[in-house]
């Protein structure tokens, strides 16, 4: 392939699977990520306790599992496992009834394989971002994507007006190029003129999302009254899930760390009061207190943590999947792929499947140029 034909921009490090596959076929890939590091919902949070101790939390996706029929995804995961990027999380999981204040069921280890990144959930994206043929540019949000008819290419501009170059194709997600949520957060119009890609834009206009808060907790001693390492909450209007982050393979066990997730209803109520802009420290402190109070209200023996902090996921979790068979949106003429978990299934496996599909569209088309 010529240099012109093989340049593809990938917007958001959540699409690193697609970027990695493209690079392996000889396509030159540049990833643009607005955050300081890779991962998105698979990122790992680094916090410092008051006494100076470093604490790491997987505060987004706690793990991922696979559908037995997804042979392509299984092959990728097998490769990651052989490279030491992922491992199976062999722990007991269950569900807890807050009304009856008891565990309803406890699932035995390994019934459904659960995989985690090593040493954090972001290890996969981090490794793929630095593979041969992939250039990664962090802390660089995209403010404008312009299709140049005369040049048959895309021109990219950063949020601060920096010209980022021309690319033969673009891979992105809905929220970083189309959604009004981009406007709600940045105060700017979406990067793409929706009239330029009207067919795709119509299908993608406002994919429903689920918001939630994550509460990161660190304890000096294990919470020994809890017989599982992850469980869902029944009959709670505030909490939906809890996971013992420090029980995952490859994690430090000098402290016990848990991550709790709110219900969507609770998050929606808070967002209705505070808006989609970045929440203030006061709001997050209040949310942390409310989530922890609900955790203590289970009747389990929950000691006081030495670290407690909340994080808001405003629009990270899709409420539905809209292209199950195609697995991604593809504009052949303009070589634009829109992929993500919202295309296949609202989880990590869905995002991987969609990334594979987007890469397939590009390699098939660019190889014929």
Main sheet record = 7 strands, mixed
Q: Alpha-carbon distance between the termini? A: 8 Å
Structural class: alpha/beta
Oligomer: single chain
Secondary-structure element order, N to C:
EHEEEHEEEEHEEEEEHHEEEEHHEEEH
Task: Note the overall shape.
Answer: globular
Mean pLDDT over the full residue set: 90
Report the uncertain regions.
none
How many alpha or pi helices? 8
Strand content: 25-35%
Protein name: Protoporphyrinogen oxidase
Pfam family, one: NAD_binding_8
InterPro entries: FAD/NAD-bd_sf (IPR036188)
How would you sum up this structure in a few lines?
With 369 residues, this protein is α/β, with parallel strands linked by helices. It has helices spanning 16-24, 71-82, 123-129, 180-186, 198-204, 264-274, 281-296, 348-366, and strands at residues 7-11, 28-33, 45-48, 54-57, 86-88, 93-97, 102-107, 115-117, 134-138, 142-148, 153-158, 163-167, 169-172, 209-219, 230-234, 239-244, 256-262, 307-318, 329-331, 336-338. Helices cover 24% and strands 30% of the residues.
């Amino acid at each position: 392939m010529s240099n012109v034909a093989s340049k593809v921009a990938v917007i958001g490090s959540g699409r690193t699977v697609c970027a990695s596959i493209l690079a392996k076929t000889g396509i030159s890939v540049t990833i643009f990520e607005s955050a300081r590091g890779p991962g998105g919902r698979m990122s790992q949070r680094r916090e410092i306790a008051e006494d100076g101790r470093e604490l790491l939390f997987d505060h987004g996706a706690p793990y991922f599992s696979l559908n037995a029929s997804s042979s392509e995804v299984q092959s990728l995961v097998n490769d990651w496992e052989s490279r030491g990027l992922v491992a199976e999380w062999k722990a007991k999981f269950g569900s807890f009834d807050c009304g009856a204040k008891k565990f309803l069921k406890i699932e035995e280890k390994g019934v459904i394989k659960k995989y985690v990144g090593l040493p954090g959930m972001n290890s996969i994206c981090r490794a793929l971002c630095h593979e041969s043929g992939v250039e990664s540019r962090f802390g660089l949000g995209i403010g404008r994507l312009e299709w140049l008819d005369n040049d048959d290419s895309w021109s990219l501009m950063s949020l601060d007006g920096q010209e980022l170059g021309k690319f033969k194709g673009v891979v992105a997600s809905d929220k970083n190029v189309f959604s009004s949520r981009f406007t709600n957060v940045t105060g700017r119009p979406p990067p793409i003129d929706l009239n330029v890609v009207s067919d795709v834009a119509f299908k993608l206009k406002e994919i429903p999302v689920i918001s939630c808060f994550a509460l990161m907790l660190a304890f000096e001693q294990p919470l020994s009254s809890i017989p599982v390492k992850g469980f869902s909450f029944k009959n709670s209007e505030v909490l939906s899930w809890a996971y013992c982050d420090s029980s995952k393979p490859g994690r430090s066990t000098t402290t016990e760390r848990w991550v709790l997730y709110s219900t969507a209803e609770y998050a929606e109520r808070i967002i209705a009061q505070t808006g989609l802009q970045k929440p203030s420290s006061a709001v997050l402190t209040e949310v942390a207190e409310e989530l922890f109070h609900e955790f203590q209200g289970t009747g389990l023996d929950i000691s006081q943590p030495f670290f407690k902090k909340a994080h808001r996921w405003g629009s990270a979790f899709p409420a539905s999947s809209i292209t199950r068979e195609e697995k991604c949106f593809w504009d052949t003429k303009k070589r634009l792929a829109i992929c993500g978990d919202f295309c296949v299934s609202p989880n990590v496996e869905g995002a991987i499947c969609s990334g594979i599909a987007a890469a397939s569209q590009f390699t098939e088309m660019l190889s014929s140029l």
